[in-house]
Amino acid sequence: MAGRFEIHRVSDECYRLRLTDSNGNTVAVSPDFKHLGALKDGINALRENAATGVVVDLRQQPLTSG
Fold first, then answer.
1. Which domains does the chain have, with CATH numbers?
2. 21, 3 in Cβ contact below 8 A?
3. Start and end of every DUF1508 domain (predicted)?
4. Which terminus in the chain has less CB density within 10 A, N or C?
5. Residues 4 and 46 sit within 8 Å (Cβ to Cβ)
């Protein structure tokens, strides 16, 4: 079984996306979306970017003090 994109209604005005792996473990949770169409656009963007994204290892970057 493949992972899946789960759409959850957070409130009457918000939706959230949860990406799960094939074992049902949560891989990522989106911020809230006010419109279902925007959430679906987010799914498409995630699919496109995950397939072509570059892995950047930032472990050796010095910590900055704020």
1. 4-44 (3.30.160)
2. yes
3. 13-57
4. C
5. no
Q: Which residues of 17-39 are buried (b: 16+ CB within 10 A; e: fewer)?
A: bebbeeeeeeeeebeebeeeeeb
- Dist. CA 39–CA 19, nearest whole Å: 12
In tens, the pLDDT along 2-14 reads 889 999 999 988 9
Dihedral angle over CA of 43, 22, 27, 14, nearest 10:
50
User: Which run of H or E residues covers position 45?
Assistant: helix 36-52
Asked if 2 and 22 touch (Cβ cutoff 8 Å), the reply is yes
Distance separating alpha carbons of residues 46 and 39, to the nearest angstrom: 10
